Every structure is written in structure tokens, then in C-alpha cells.
Amino acid sequence: MKIKKHHLILLALCLLALPATLGSVSLQDGQAILTELDRLSTLEGKDLSALMTMISEDPDTGIEKTKVLQFRSDDEDKFLMLIQEPTVKKGQGYLMIDDNLWFYDPESRKFSHTSMKDQFNQSDANNSDFNSSSMADDYKVVSIEEGKLGNYSVNILELEAVNNEVTYPKRKIWVTAGSVNLQIKSEDYSASGRLMRTSYYPSYTTSDDKYIATKMIFVDELIEGKKTTITISDISFKDIPDSVFTKSYVERVNK
Amino acid sequence: MELLKIAYRNVSRQKRRSNLLALAIAFGVMMIILVNSLTQGLVRTTEENFSSALGGHIYLTGEVLLESGKVTNQIADTQVLDAVLPQFTGYIAESQKRTTISGTYIFHSKTTNGNLYGVNWEEEKTLMDTFAVLEGSLDRIGEERAIVIPQETAEDLGVALNEEILVSFTTITGQANVGEFTIVAIVKDTLGLGFTASYANIGYVNDLVGLEAEEYQSYNLVLNDISQIHSITKLIEDAILQQGALLKPEPDESDSIMPMGGMAGAMFSTAEEEVWQGTRFNVGNLNDYMDAVDQIVAILNGVSLGVFFIMLLITMVGLMNTFRMIIIERTREIGTMRAIGMLKRDVSQLFLLEGLILGLRGVLFGVAAELIIGTIIRLISFTDGSRFAMILNQGHIAVPIVPSNIMMITAIIVMITLIAVWFPARKAARLLPSDALRS
User: Fold this and answer.
1) Is the ipTM beyond the 0.85 threshold?
2) Who is most buried in A163, B174, B428, B436, counting CB within 10 A?
3) Alpha carbon B99 to chain centroid distance?
């Protein structure tokens, strides 16, 4: 078949247009983005104390405000959350030491084992949302593309879990492109592929080269009208004594 | 026979006193028979309700240790049970393979929690027969995503037939998952315990929780004779061990969590590291859930026994004093009888027979009163969903008639009566005719 000249020009134009649709990021870049996200959110050499204000909106129970003191030591892989308000829940605590997460009930004065995958305080946040990120270990990137989210240029990554440690087997995350990769949105999917939760991270604070989300919005995609907004304030990076991350400390503060 | 006639005539002479005495005995008899019947009814009804709710009398579940160290609830080595259970065919009325989800039902903004049982509809004909269908039909249960929900769940969610609901739960390895189901039937709550459960196709449920098609989480057995529950459980355990499979050791009190028997969701163990391959089986039975009821029944029986003995004591003392009075009143009569030739033995037997007649009359009154009161209690109807559903038999309190109880109590009353009357009767027999006539 004789190829006409204008066919060749047309083909060249098509080939030039392709890179814009294929994107300039690869799966390896995606995995590197996950590693960078983990690095930016993991506090090395410093601890975190903060006050977390959680507003949960539930069509059944209405609006509930919870205040939680958060202590985190990523170097030791420990965290402690102590509920301060409302009064009826004051003293309840979540203590993580290594891979064990304990819930403390001041009424019964007993610790019970719980899971990082469980919901925190019946909200749309999970216990794992308050720990340091380990997405590079837990997920693999199955697709990546460039896009826009509002005014931000982002990379949109589709992730699949590589182990059973995570709550959501599939996720889609929006990460800011450019010099700093920050996760600003994520969609969390069930094993059957149903969208279960959409999370937004509209603001961050920074210390050295570490970033802590100061506002998180979790929208339940299964239950209409249910969402949780978390605001983090009074942030401190001072060292926290090891004795804080112990069961005896949790019991002592409740006496 | 003559003595019996005379004794009966003597008892009938003092109607008021005899009836009052018989009523006192009757009250004690009625109370003890009623309490015994109630406790027996409580035990039987609770056993039946639990059996219905839990899907049988004996429950076989399993644990599998994953490479990650987590333990999941599932029976992966189905060939073990396929080899073991045919040995017990003669004892088993019915068997059911189930996979269970404990999750949240969601319909738009409404939620409710409950259990969802994955069942093999072709094998669970009895279950289908127990459904009281309020809306829809069981003809569509073969559809992959069909679900049969109880009325309470439908009302909580505000759903109607053919609508789609979501069930949010965690898989056996702890991942979040959501099932989408279409309501094909709404039924009256089948469990009768205030618990709600829905039913769906086990194939789809297995797929959702992360099991293979042929796997399941529990194998429930309904026995022909519930009294053999303990012995059959032991035999099944031995048979499993003979197949070279493992049994789960008895739980250690130091374990900080209770295992979620047969439910989807990873189970975390804080005990020392145990390693095994394949499925580790656990054979539980209804008695595991009846401890609380057994304790209540033991307390009730203890209390009623105590009350019964006190009443017997009172009855015995009352009878003794009453017959002392009778003998004092009838001293001249005794003297006359002795004077005309009645032997001491006959005098003694006469009073014993009078006591026996009073005792039997009391038992008769007591049994009749218990039957009447028991019937009235059985007629009381409690509304559906009552908090007492566990101890009710289709909304009614069970008060069974237990002939052996009645016979035993009759024998005890007869014995007590004879003992109580023996002393006065002996005294009466020893009276000298001359002294008796002079009094």
C-alpha cells in the first residue's frame, strides 16, 4: 500500500500529542512518591503532642464534638490518644505499643485489645489514620496519572494493598506535584471495589522537613450525611517521656 | 377396708379442720410443683431457643494460622469433617454449614447492626420452613445477591422489598469490605431471642469474607436426642484427633480477648506464640451457652427446695399438733373403741389412715391448683420482641406437666404425713380403755 505524504504528517502529529495523554510519571515514580509521603509524615528524632478536635456528623446521632490529646513517638512506634471531652468519654484511651493497640475504659478500668483497622471513637477516622504513614510498605502503585485538584497540580495514584495489615485493600490518592509531595485527597475502597470513604487533607503544618496535617475531613461514602472533621492544634515537638506510652500512665491519669 | 371407711368418715366429720389442714398441705405441694415445672420449662425453652438461634446443638468451628501470624476463623480442611461426621449419622437429625458476617446494614443514611448467615439453601430446608414470610417470596433466594432480612432490620432501615442494601464488615483477614444485597423476602424474626439475623447465599458471602467456595466457618449439628449432647461432643473430638487433625486447647484465662466463634474477622491472640498447620478445630455445644441459665436454675431449685423443706416442717408440726388435739378430743371415743374390742394396732392404723387421707387430699388439691395456675400462666402472651424472648416458647411461658415430679412429691407428702401422725397415733393406741372412758 502506498503511504501518502499527508498520512505521514497526520501520524507525526498524533505521536507528538501522545505524551500529553500518557503522562510523564511512571509506576516507579509512583512508588517513590509513596516513599516520600512516608518520609515527610514520619517524625524522626522528635515526638509529637497535639490537641485534636473531632466533629462527627451522623444522621442518626447528630453532631458530636470530641477533644483528644494525642502523643506520638514514631521512632519508638508508639502513640497514645486520651479523650478529654465529652465528659461521658473522658479518660478513654488508645495506646499503641509496637503492633499492639489497646483501648482503655476508665469505667471498668480494663484494657482490651483492638485493631488499627477499627474506627476511632465510632467516627469515620480509623485508628491507623493517627499513626505514621507506611504506604510504601503496604501498597503498590498500579496506575499513576497527572491531574488537577482545584488549583493544585497533582499526581493521582491508584494503589493496591500488598499485605493484610491495612484496612482498605484499594486506594486512590491525590498527591501534590512539585517539590513537596503532600497527600490532599484519598478515596478508600473495599475489597469488592466499592468506594467506602473519601478523605481530604486541606492544610498542613511543617517542622523542619516534616509535615503534619492540621485538618482532615473523612466523608463516609456508604452512609449518607456522615462525616468527621478533625482539626489539630497546640502542636508541640518536644520529647515525650517513655513513661507516657505505658498502661500505668493511662491508669494514673484516670485516677 | 373397714378401717379405711371409718377413717374417711372421721375425717369428713370435722370438715372445716380437715379442709384447712389439707389446704395447708396443698399450698406447699402447689408451690413446689409449680416452681419445678417453671424451672424445667425455663431450661427446655432456653435450650430450644438457643439451639434455633445458634443453628444446632453442636458447633464445629476452625482456626487457620496465616503466614503473617494472624489467626482466621474458617474450616479449610473440610475433608476431616467429611471423614468424621458420617460416623454419627444415626445421632444427627440435621446439619448446616454456615459462614457468618457480623456487620452494619446500610440503606442511605440509616444503619443497623446484625448478623448475616451465609447458608446453602439446598441443604437448609428446615430453616426455610421456619420462615414466616411477611413480604416477598423465598422463590428468589437462589439469586446470588438475594437476602432474607428480619422485620426488625427492615423497619430500622426503612427498606422495602426489592431494594438494595449494603452490609459493611471486615473479611477474615481484617480488611474492610462491603456486600450489596437485594431484599427478596422480609420475615418475622426467626431467632426469638431479640437477636436479628439475615440469610444469604453462602457462595456470595464466602466470596465477600475471603473464603473459597467450598469452605465455611461453622458446621452446626442438630441432634436427635439433646441429652446425648455431651457424649456426642466428646466422641466427635476423639474422631477428629484420630484423623490426625488438631483441636483448639481450652482457653487460658490470661487471654485478653474472647474469640469471635465462627464470625468473619481476624482473631488476634495475645497468648504465647502457637504454631500449627491446617485447621485447628473447636467443638462447642449448647451447654457452653447455658451456663448462666444453669446457674439461675440451680439457684431457683435450691431456693424452692429450701422453701419446700420449711413448708414440710411446718406441715409436719401442724399435723402433729392437730392430731394431738384430735386425740385429746376423741379420748372417750378411743376408750369406747378399745372397750368393744378394737386392738391397739387398729387404733394406731385408724389414725394413720386419717392422716394419710388428709395428706392425699392436700396433694390432690395442690396438684389441681398447680394445673389451673399453670394453665393460666401458659395463656399469658408476651409481645414479640419481648426482652424475655429467650425464655419464652413462642411468646408464652412454658409450664410443663412432669408426672415424675408429681409422683415424687406425693410420696414425700405421704411419708411426712405418716411420720407426723405416727407419734400421736401411737399414744392413742396406748391409752388404757378405762382411763380413756373416765376422762
Assistant:
1) no
2) B428
3) 26
